[in-house]
């Protein structure tokens, strides 16, 4: 199965480091991040999960729940978490899915045979409260993800949903945003009271709306 942007994220039951879960029940009305890692007890993954753990307050601010996955078992996850906590000076509180039969990995297309016939690649999905897939990023096993970028995209998606704007290249929270082409400049001036700066009829900026 190949999942694309805008698709409904498939539901599933899973064993995790924190017990059995139903994916939809775990997410509830929150945004969600589901990300796979190639294996437990590997160096890049150890740094990734440690950094993700340190971002808990940032994800909480954004109403977002995080859940990881690999094809290792629950016992391996639980023992590896001790190493993560020790070496990364954190406390992992999000669940890690034990996908030993690879059913969830195959459901979400996390195994790419030309990269590895058995291990999951370094994929990540952002899922909105309607269970729609809003972002898909896949990295090679040798490259750790940039979770600051994940937060940036999450901010952009949530801002765009709430205020019907778009975000330009290298945008960060607080920067000017773009008025979508579907809104006329006349209407934009009514919708965005902070003002509209027109560079071209199709390229218009406005200060970021209050969130």
Radius of gyration: 19 Å
Strand content: 15-25%
Number of helices: 7
Oligomer: single chain
Global mean pLDDT: 92
Give start-end ranges of low-pLDDT stretches: none
Q: How would a crystallographer describe the biggest sheet? A: 7 strands, mixed
Overall structural class, as computed from helix and strand content, comes to alpha+beta
The count of strands amounts to: 10
Pattern of helices and strands: EEHEHHEHEHEEHEHEE
Separation of termini?
Answer: 36 Å
GO molecular function, one term: thioredoxin-dependent peroxiredoxin activity
InterPro entries: AhpC/TSA (IPR000866), Peroxiredoxin_AhpC-typ (IPR024706), Peroxiredoxin_C (IPR019479), PRX_1cys (IPR045020), Thioredoxin-like_sf (IPR036249), Thioredoxin_domain (IPR013766)
Keywords: Antioxidant, Oxidoreductase, Peroxidase, Redox-active center
Protein name: Peroxiredoxin
Polypeptide structure, described:
- The chain is of the alpha+beta class.
- It is built from seven helices and ten strands.
- The strands form two sheets. Strands 2-1-5-4-3-6-7 form a seven-stranded mixed β-sheet. The chain has a three-stranded antiparallel β-sheet with strand order 8-10-9, with no helix packed on it.
- Helix 4 links the parallel strand 4 and strand 5.
- Helix 2 (43-54) packs across helix 4 (74-88).
- The relative contact order is 0.15.
């Amino acid at each position: 199965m190949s999942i694309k942007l805008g698709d409904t994220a498939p539901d599933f039951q899973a064993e995790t480091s924190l017990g059995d879960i139903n994916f939809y029940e775990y997410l509830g009305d929150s945004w969600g991040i589901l990300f796979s890692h190639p294996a437990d007890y590997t160096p890049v993954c150890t740094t990734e999960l440690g950094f993700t753990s340190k971002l808990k307050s940032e994800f909480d601010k954004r109403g977002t729940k995080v859940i990881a996955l690999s094809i290792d078992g629950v016992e391996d996850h639980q023992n590896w978490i001790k190493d993560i906590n020790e070496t990364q000076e954190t406390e992992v509180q999000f669940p890690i899915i034990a996908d030993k039969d690879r059913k969830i990995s195959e459901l979400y297309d996390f195994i790419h045979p030309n990269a590895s016939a058995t291990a999951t690649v370094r994929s990540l999905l952002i899922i909105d409260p309607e269970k729609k897939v809003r972002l898909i990023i896949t990295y090679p096993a040798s490259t750790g993800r940039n979770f600051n970028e994940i937060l940036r995209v999450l901010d952009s998606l949530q801002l765009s949903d709430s205020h019907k704007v778009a975000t330009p290249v290298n945008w960060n929270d607080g920067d000017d945003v773009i008025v979508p082409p579907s809104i006329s400049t006349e209407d934009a001036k009514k919708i965005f009271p902070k003002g509209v700066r027109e560079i071209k009829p199709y390229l218009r900026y406005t200060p970021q709306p209050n969130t």
